[in-house]
Automatic annotation (TrEMBL):
Keyword presence, Transferase: yes
Record-linked SMART domains: ANK, PreSET, SET
Keywords: ANK repeat, Chromatin regulator, Chromosome, Methyltransferase, S-adenosyl-L-methionine, Transferase
Name used for this protein in its record: Histone-lysine N-methyltransferase EHMT2-like
Region named Disordered: 1-52, 211-237
Organism: Sinocyclocheilus anshuiensis
Domain annotation SET: ranges: 675-792
Pfam family of the protein (one): EHMT1-2_CRR
ANK repeat boundaries on the chain: 387-420, 421-453, 487-519
């Protein structure tokens, strides 16, 4: 159908003469830990004052032995005004993008501006070297970057130390320098607090709040949920060993946005900011703050103590065990071969799960149920129990979305892992009606077509749970509604047996078969209890389906009495007996060609050649007939039998300058539509046009009407399905586009065996660039037959890439079968050109 659009590079145009016619990604800021930690070792900083020799990543001294020792402790000062030498390749590794990160009330915003200078800077030796844009370089020099965490303090809540009226040192409450850091049992530091920039007493620092500005195009928000993936807040913070990096005071006001962190023995960081704000993050912070004190007690642990500690949510004990090198994948017989991650996931203990995942090291030799590592750098693992279940199974079963998301974010769990019963995590979530977990699993690509040991798919379990909302999600994910299990039950069988009307209604609306029988010979209707809503719904559906099946022809609906709205001589009704599509309304019906830009058509009456006939222009002396070679109309206003239908000549009808009567026989097209036509919905080709009366051969049908445009304009239009080339051989070429303005002819489909032909006609003007396109019947057309003309080979050269002809004619040249045969024939010619020559087929060769 010409109503089908395409985006072909060429223009698909219909023509009168048939065959033979013409035819930046943007780079984003990389905030990954690998990019930020790839700098060379920090440059040594020489200060005017005498300092202690420190490692590149100093740890805060945690305990004071006596007052003399406290006086000997040296404060680590900032290096905000120092510029390290240029590091070869460092700017390239950062994509020449600023590496600054701003901390705004717990939300991290990364800058994506282009850097100008390649020299690196950092606020202290705790923080990795950074290349910065000019804006953040100026803020670094002004001491607006926190030396403790490396985040810029440009908006949000933070502390300010003012050693001078014109100087402000900004830092976070949790990043103060601590001397004599004795800690209470609650983990709150009680030592002396100093500004991490200048070493002044931090007790005099004031808390300030600067409202955040509207994010610009040069910033990239890094949310807390993404912190556990490639863009981690800890990417700029690296401490060697297991010491506490920062100290934070946990007051009644909640948890500070930037808290303490440490590095586990396997080299992975533990950062509370990886968890969402709340009790879980606070518990992890307290565990980090107290672990130094507890480790000094030199406690000894056995691996079998890890699982009970994880099960009870004792994050502090779990952390101590991990720091002592306890294997987190240890499975104890007393715990039914369950590892600590299973226990924590089942209880929804987010902070414990995070610790275990960060420290998980796979040992395929000692753990029989772990799968092998994928590569030397990444240990992608699935720890399974004897029954094959994983931590993700338990978290999905309990509906703990936080734990599910945490496990999925690691990329180390098999989302489609099947336990001993063949059940996947999404099956467990479907059975227990955890819709949020199901959405999360589907977003990560969970397979809903996997079958359990009894051949049930996920939809069977959703039906068993009675949740129509979950069932719809699973159906939309591609789970087949017709799936049968080992007993021959479909999801409709299960919903009918359990009496879930919402699921039954959903399945019926999706076309579920109510007559299918399981292996016991039961249909869904026979399984439903009598006189229940489910039984009634199934009965009604069966009667409706039988009524539809017994109907021979779908009843046609008259959806418009006249699509022409009175602009034609006869009304043109619109009917639909195929679907529920309404009358086309995406165009403006017009009876004559229109222009949306100046075409400069010569309509000057003095330029018209005209006749001086006083009869009906039937004589050979008629000048208009002579311009057409002869008058091609008979007395019934039909084309003569000898009219060339393959290469139709131009027809010049009498015009307004002629002396003849308006009823002369050489005025046919300008008289308008006289035959009764109907717009109707076809089975395969959208809308079409058919005759409501018998139409003799040579009768005028209608004119192809639309918007007159230039060929250049046609080449830039997106939808080229309604273009009709006027085939002017001299000068610029023009087209008629019926996409937005047109008449009934815009709905006429292509027929490989056409029954109408297009003819170029001139009447109101004789400008050869703009002929009128008139359709005449090429043979007798009977009532009810569809009208169609040949769109031309150049149309199908473009459109055959997107759809094929559906005319159904025995002479069809553009169907899928015909195209395949033609391609096969051409392939044979390429292989055996000498055979083609013997058969008399044309063979192309060098000229």
């Amino acid at each position: 159908s010409p109503s089908t659009s395409s985006s072909a590079s060429g223009r698909a145009k219909m023509s009168v003469c048939g065959p033979g016619s013409k035819s930046t990604p943007s780079s984003s800021s990389s905030l990954s830990s690998s990019a930020l930690s790839s700098a060379s070792p920090p440059a040594k900083v020489h200060r005017a004052r005498k300092t202690m020799n420190r490692p590149p990543f100093p740890q805060v001294l945690s305990f004071v032995i006596d007052a003399e020792t406290e006086r000997l402790e040296e404060l680590p000062l900032c290096s905000c005004r120092m510029e390290a030498p240029r590091v070869d390749g460092f700017s390239a590794r950062s994509n020449r993008t600023c590496m600054a990160i701003e901390s705004i009330n717990g939300e991290l915003v990364g800058c994506t501006k282009v850097i100008v200078k390649g020299e690196t800077m950092r606020p202290s030796s705790r923080v990795s070297l950074m290349v910065l844009c000019e804006t953040h370089r100026s803020h670094m020099v002004k001491h607006h970057c926190c030396p403790g965490c490396g985040y810029f303090c440009l908006s949000g809540t933070f502390l300010e130390c003012c050693p001078d009226v014109h100087i402000t040192h900004r830092f976070h409450r949790g990043c103060v320098s601590v001397l004599g850091c004795g800690r209470s049992r609650g983990g709150v530091g009680v030592g002396l607090l100093f500004c991490p920039h200048c070493g002044e007493d931090a007790s005099e620092a004031r808390e300030v709040t600067i409202p955040p500005a509207v994010p610009s195009s040069g910033s990239n928000v890094v949310t807390a949920s993404a912190s556990s993936t490639t863009t981690t807040p800890s990417a700029r913070m690296h401490c060697r060993g297991g010491g506490v990096e920062d100290v934070v005071a946990l007051g009644d006001g909640g948890v500070d946005s930037v808290g303490p962190s440490l590095v586990l023995p396997n080299g992975k960081p533990v950062c509370p900011s990886a968890l969402p704000p709340g009790d879980r993050r606070a518990a992890l912070q307290r565990a980090i703050l107290t672990q130094d004190t507890e480790r000094r007690k030199k406690l000894r642990f056995h691996p079998r103590q890890l699982c009970p500690a994880a099960k009870q949510g004792e994050a502090q004990r779990v952390l101590l065990m991990l720091m002592e090198g306890i294997d987190p994948s240890y499975q104890s017989d007393s715990q039914n071969r369950r590892c600590a991650l299973h226990a924590a996931a089942q209880r929804g203990l987010l902070e414990v799960c995070y610790l275990l995942i960060q420290n998980h090291v796979l040992d395929v030799v000692s753990i029989m149920l772990c799968c092998e590592c994928v590569s030397a750098e990444s240990s992608v693992f699935v720890v399974q129990e004897e029954d094959g279940s994983t931590g993700l199974h338990h978290a999905a079963k309990l509906g703990n979305l936080e734990v599910v998301m945490l496990l999925l974010s690691t990329g180390q769990v098999d989302i489609n892992a099947q336990d001993s019963g063949g059940w996947t995590p999404i099956i467990w979530a479907a059975e227990h009606r955890h819709i949020d977990v199901i959405r999360a699993l589907l977003n990560r690509g969970a397979n809903v077509t996997l079958r359990d040991k009894e051949m049930n798919v996920c939809l069977h379990w959703a039906s068993f749970s009675g949740s129509a909302e979950i069932a719809e999600l699973i159906l939309n994910a591609g789970c087949p509604l017709s799936s049968v299990n080992l007993h021959g039950d479909t999801p409709l069988h299960i919903a009918a047996r359990e009496g879930y009307i919402d699921c039954v209604t959903l399945f019926l609306s999706r076309g579920a078969d109510i007559d299918i029988m399981n292996k016991e010979g039961d249909t869904p209707l026979s399984l439903a209890r009598s006189d229940t809503p489910v039984w009634v719904a199934l009965q009604i559906n069966r009667k409706l389906r039988r009524g539809i099946a017994n109907r021979i022809v779908r009843t046609e609906r008259i959806i418009c009495s006249d699509v022409a709205q009175g602009y034609e001589n006869v009304p043109i009704p619109c009917v639909n007996g195929v679907d529920d599509e309404g009358c086309p309304s995406d165009y403006k019906y017009i009876a004559e060609n229109c222009e949306t830009s100046t075409m400069n058509i010569d309509r000057n009456i003095t330029h018209l050649q005209h006749c001086s006939c006083t009869d009906d222009c039937s004589s050979s002396n008629c000048l208009c007939g002579q311009l057409s070679i002869r008058c091609w109309y008979d007395k019934d206003h039909r084309l003569l039998q000898e009219f060339n239908k393959i290469e139709p000549p131009l027809i010049f009808e009498c015009n307004m300058a002629c002396s003849c009567h308006k009823a002369c026989k050489n005025r046919v097209v300008q008289a308008g539509i006289k035959v009764r036509l109907q717009l109707y919905r076809t089975e395969k080709m959208g809308w079409g046009v058919r005759a409501l009366q018998d139409i003799p051969q040579g009768s005028f049908i209608c004119e192809y009407v639309g918007e007159l445009i230039s060929d250049a304009e046609a080449d830039v239009r997106e939808d080229d399905s309604y273009l009709f080339d006027l085939d002017n051989k001299d000068g610029e070429v023009y087209c008629i586009d019926a996409r937005y303005y047109g008449n009934i002819s815009r709905f006429i489909n292509h027929l490989c065996d056409p029954n109408i032909i297009p003819v170029r006609v001139f009447m109101l003007h004789q400008d050869l660039r703009f002929p009128r396109i008139a359709f005449f019947s090429s043979r007798d057309i009977f009532t009810g037959q569809e009208l169609g003309f040949d769109y031309g080979d150049r149309f199908w050269d473009i459109k055959s890439k997107y759809f094929t002809c559906q005319c159904g004619s025995e002479k069809c040249k553009h169907s899928a079968e015909a195209i395949a045969l033609e391609q096969s024939r051409l392939a044979r010619l390429e292989v055996c050109p000498e055979t083609a020559g013997e058969a008399g087929l044309p063979v192309l060769g060098p000229s």
